[in-house]
Amino acid sequence: MTDFRDPGDRDPAMPRKGAARTAKLASLPLGIAGRAVGGWGKRLAGQSAEQVSATLSAKAAEQLFEVLGTLKGGAMKFGQALSVFEAAVPDDMAKPYREALTKLQAAAPPMSARQTHRVLAEQLGRTWSSRFASFDDEPAAAASIGQVHRAVWHDGREVAVKVQYPGADEALRSDLRQLQRFSRLFQAFVPGTEVKPLLAELAERMNEELDYQAEAQHQRAFAKAFEGDPGILVPHVVASAPKVVVTEWVTGTPLSKVIADGDRETRNLAGRLLAEFHYSAPERVHLLHSDPHPGNFMITDDDRLCVIDFGGVARLPDGIPRHLGEMTRLALDGESAGLMRLLRENRFIRPESDLTADEVLAYLAPFTEPLAEPTFHFTRRWMQKQAGRVGDSRGNDFRVGRSLNLPPEYLMIHRVTAGSTGILCQLDAAIPARGIVERWQPGFAA
After folding, report:
1. Residues 206 and 354 in one domain
2. Which of 178, 215, 257, 445 has an alpha carbon 20 to 30 Å from 39's alpha carbon atom?
3. Half-sphere exposure of 245 (CA within 13 A, CB side)
4. Among candidate residues 210, 243, 273, the one where a domain is terminated
5. Which residues form the domain of 58?
6. Other CB atoms closer than 10 Å to residue 107's CB: what's the count?
7. Measuring CA to CA, which residue among 428, 86, 381 is closest to residue 269?
8. What predicted TM-score, i.e. pTM, was given to this entire model?
9. Disordered: where is this region (predicted)?
10. What is the pLDDT of residues 128-169, one digit of tens each?
């Protein structure tokens, strides 16, 4: 039997040394700046601004995918987090980033079979292969800190085996430190979204992401809570170790494919089920799936939403706070005084702030538009309008947004809701959002 611990085997696909990874990340701002200078030269040579802009965007997106995808780790995790906000980018700039970031959701250079076998031997024991009737060495999918193999468990069940990349912990920490240095650069990719706190949150939660046993516990809790649900499927966990997790294999259509070319019925189905999963989980599991990007969802042949990857969750022992539902209802109904009172009581507005109730209502009310009618059509145009409104530094909404305070305990809820909304807009889905929120969001219907 091959000695899978052979120290001579090294996986070249994942640079592990800090200097090498830093150099790759540093190439992003340098490359983009260099192309911008070259673009001015082309403008002077007679090319139109539109031609130059399109060329620069395509090349920048190509480099973004190449660097983040090759590095995996925190860089790829950041790219996946950015991808759900792609719908906010104006259409004339979005296409190359859409294509590049969609690739990041499901693609990365794989590690070698020998490297994979060595991790399996370390985590499941030297006789790991006896636990499987068969094991496909070719990865079926790649994630930010691991890759997934298709296999058959010894009892005949088809399973997905997620194996963590060696050195993922070191790479994750290095990437996130470097990416925080370049947060202003990445801000341009997602107007209206705060990149710096997103990176800070990813850094804070990375230890959970690296612990596959904790992920397995989360997935078991979700699978138990959604057992028998007609619309949501969470695969059962078969076995787990700190760097390997084995779950039931599920076949379905990835949400990225539905976004790319799904028909109207499938788009609406996917959007409705995604919203129901997002809003119902805090009450049903007291946990919130906190990694909303299309690579973590599939539509099965029997029209269920399959949810995978539970490495990051927010613990909500009391469910979603009731006052968030109350604030949403007040904003929807135009009750500026009551809204202002609740915001101040819950530290969303600092005591010394000079914001007026009408200013705050004008800022928040448009976000409640999806709840004004029984059915709302989530579109990229709507997302772009909201992002443009709050991201325009010349407008009053920009000033109000910068003056509001988001208490740390609400950061995850806010990001996951924004990310899920981004996916709904990518899906171009028309869904009964109001009914879903009325059923599952405490404080909204009262």
Report:
1. no
2. 178
3. 27
4. 210
5. 1-210
6. 14
7. 428
8. 0.76
9. 1-20
10. 999 999 999 999 987 667 899 999 999 999 999 999 988 777
